[in-house]
Design goal:
Elements (H helix, E strand, L loop, with lengths): L20 E2 H4 L9 H6 L2 E7 L4 E7 L6 H8 L3 H12 L15 E4 L8 E5 L2 E2 L2 E2 L4 E6 L5 E7 L19 H13 L8 E7 L3 E6 L9 E16 L2 E14 L6 E8 L5 E6 L6 E5 L37 E5 L23 E5 L21 E2 L13 H24 L24 E11 L2 E4 L8 E6 L7 E4 L7 E3 L1 E2 L11 E6 L19 H4 L3 E5 L5 H10 L4 E5 L43 E5 L15 E7 L13 E2 L1
Parallel strand pairs: 16-19, 18-20, 20-22, 26-27, 27-28, 28-29
Antiparallel strand pairs: 1-15, 2-3, 3-9, 4-5, 5-8, 6-7, 8-9, 10-11, 11-12, 12-13, 13-14, 14-15, 16-17, 21-22, 23-24, 23-30, 25-29, 26-30, 30-31
């Protein structure tokens, strides 16, 4: 059993907006190396230049200027060898030391099909310490000819440079204390910091020692994390500490999340960056209304968790309404946003959620994501009384829940060690290792199965696929009369194919007296003679002489809130069909503040009338006990269907 612990804050909001600082951006421009002729002869064209370092920022390949012998040699090389060959030819353009192209580490991303562009990423490090933010990406076609190069490598690193030449005079606790003071305008004694764990990527996390708690009004919302880096400047390399701080005032609902680079020589700030830069989005979902906004177990919230009796006794918790949750990401972990600013669909860095209903695997023209209902808002209510595919809005509500849960679990597992280097699912890995381009494809209401779900998990760099299918319901069906004692108890009951399939309804039971015909209790002739007694109550109607839908429609027109059809035959109650569905009728509403029973139209519409039937053994017209209204509670269930999702039986 694995226990996952969440360290959360009271809010993901940002209290401060300190100005950004970047020593590299603020440095004077370096002289540009003028080698355009050499670059063209090497099969490249400089499109943009990084003026700070005097090296290219983006280079296009130029096949027409390449030597055919070189192109032929490329086709016989591996992708990494070919990328190093391109880099070696362009090394003077990037001011790289001789031999550097053959020694820098590389990561190769090849299409799973074996055909198409190949991406090779180079980076630099000294004795395991990475050059901060430096990476150069070489994009080649399947023949290994150069398409483009982006990024940079520092020109100040020679193959023979050793780590002992880079002094870290400032230790990690001093670097964290320096960043803490800048962020909170309050000093922190480095001695009050203690290591609380090691993390992948060379990070160590630090918290306040127990003895120092209460000495400051500023708390660490999550442990600070830090690692050694080498910060490139136009004229040199600077040993430094990279630090991430998430702090806030005690009792406050806001918190700050900043990253810093602190010079290890003298504590100068080389970089200050606000990590909270995304926009908050609102989602209508079943989840906790307070941090950490953990998803509920289902449409019943957390009711029934744990089970109240611990035995399979048919207990069903009542449904609860979903809430509108506003956040950028889970208020823990790195704070990486789920969606980019201005997003309008459920596709972000971690998850691409959509319905897969077209009949072909994957998202195509017939499938769709959930779209926003307003600015930064996904506000659709999933109607538990309707079919999962009842409408586009219903399906988008399901997709919104799927998107929310997947993103929450991404953040939760991240803090448990499933990060970029461990091979998690992210489009952008933010330079933290691993292979990007592999967000989860979350497919809701998948067409290809029922009663199960599955997950395909290729190696890091290819998108995992989650398929969630509709589930066959397993309803509990019962009908109980509470009074009078002479007929109180449970009776066999069936369901209707029209009207709501899941609902909660209780009321007084009144036997119908109609306008005449073959039987005064069959409900076939309208208006009912006792229509005044029918309003707001449940109609008791005998079977026979006209269509079930006619009986129910007449009862509804008389003001009844539900109908029970009595089967006079001593056999099991049949299900009620609807060969001629009635036309839509006005919605039923309650007074402001009163609970509204989740009912729906007996014709295809959102709200309306509920009906059921049972087997008491004698017609309603012959039961003297039915002459007065009686309280009744009905437990109604829904028929199983391949096209239905997992349903819960409700009380009616």
């Amino acid at each position: 059993m694995i226990s996952l612990v969440l360290v959360v804050s009271g809010s993901a909001a940002t209290a401060k907006d300190l100005p950004s600082l970047d020593a590299l951006n603020d440095a004077a421009s370096a002289p540009q190396v003028a080698v355009p002729g050499r670059a063209l002869r090497a099969g490249a064209r400089v499109a943009h230049t990084d003026s700070r370092l005097g090296v290219p920022a983006f280079v296009w390949g130029s096949r027409s200027s390449e030597d055919e012998r070189f192109l032929s040699a490329l086709r016989r090389m591996s992708p990494e060898q070919a990328a190093r060959a391109h880099l070696s030819r362009l090394a003077p353009l990037y001011r790289l030391a001789p031999g550097m192209a053959s020694q820098v580490p590389a990561n190769v991303k090849v299409p799973l099909s074996g055909q198409g562009p190949v991406l090779v990423t180079f980076w630099q490090e000294v004795e395991g310490v990475p050059i901060f933010r430096d990476a150069l990406k070489v994009l080649m076609n399947e023949r290994h000819e150069l398409i483009a190069i982006s990024g940079r490598l520092t020109p100040h690193l020679a193959p023979q440079v050793q780590g002992d030449k880079l002094r870290f005079a400032l230790d990690v606790r001093q670097a964290i204390a320096r960043a803490y003071e800048d962020l909170n305008s309050k000093p922190l004694d480095p001695a009050n910091l203690e290591a609380v764990g090691s993390m992948s990527g060379g990070y160590t996390s630090f918290g306040i020692t127990p003895a120092a708690h209460g000495q400051s009004s500023v708390r660490m919302v999550t442990p600070a994390r830090a690692r050694r880096v080498i910060f490139p400047l136009p004229d040199r390399l600077e040993p430094a500490w990279y630090v991430e701080l998430n702090t806030g005032e005690e009792g406050s609902t806001s918190a700050d999340y900043y990253s810093y680079v602190v010079a290890a020589s003298d504590g100068r700030l080389l970089l200050r960056n606000n990590l909270t830069v995304a926009e908050a989005f609102s989602y209508r979902v079943w989840a906790e209304a307070t941090p950490p906004y953990r998803p509920d177990d289902g449409p019943q919230g957390l009711l029934g968790t744990p089970h109240p009796t611990g035995v399979p006794d048919g207990y069903q918790a009542p449904f609860v309404a979903p809430g509108l949750i506003t956040l950028e990401s889970s208020p823990f972990s790195n704070g990486d946003p789920w969606l980019p600013p201005g997003a309008t669909e459920t596709v972000g860095n971690n998850v691409d959620a959509y319905v897969d209903i077209s009949g072909a695997d994957g998202r195509d023209g017939a499938d769709f994501r959930a779209s926003t209902t307003g600015a930064n808002t996904f506000n659709r209510v999933y109607d538990v009384t309707q079919e999962p595919g009842a409408s586009t809005s219903q399906r988008m509500a399901a997709v919104t829940q799927l998107f929310y849960v997947n993103n929450f679990l991404h953040d939760w597992y991240y803090d448990s060690g499933f990060d970029e280097q461990a091979g998690n699912a992210q489009t952008d890995n933010y330079g933290r290792g691993g292979v990007g381009g592999d967000s989860i494809k979350a497919e809701a209401q998948d067409f290809s199965g029922v009663d199960r779900s599955d997950m395909a998990t290729p190696a890091d760099g290819a998108q995992p696929r989650m398929q969630l299918y509709l589930a066959t319901p397993h309803p509990e069906i019962s009908f109980t009369i509470l009074a009078p004692p002479a007929i109180a108890g449970e009776y066999p009951t069936g369901t209707a194919s029209f009207g709501p399939q899941v609902f909660t309804l209780s009321g007084e039971l009144v036997a119908v007296v109609d306008a005449g015909g073959a039987s005064p209790s069959d409900g076939c002739e309208a208006p009912f003679a006792n229509a005044a007694a029918m309003a707001g109550r449940i109609a008791l109607i005998d079977r026979g002489n006209c269509a079930f839908t006619d009986k129910v429609k007449n009862a509804q027109n008389a003001g009844a809130i539900g109908a029970v059809i009595v089967n006079q035959a001593l056999s099991g109650p049949p299900d009620l069909g609807a060969p001629n569905p009635p036309s839509p009728f006005p919605r039923l509403r309650s007074s402001p503040g009163a609970p509204v029973p989740p009912t729906s139209s007996i014709a295809p519409s959102a709200d309306g009338f509920s009906c059921a039937h049972f087997l008491p053994g004698t017609p309603a017209s012959q039961q003297s006990a039915m002459e007065q209204p009686h309280q009744a509670v009905i437990l109604i269930a829904i028929p199983a269907s391949r096209d239905e999702g997992s349903r819960q039986a409700g009380q009616a």
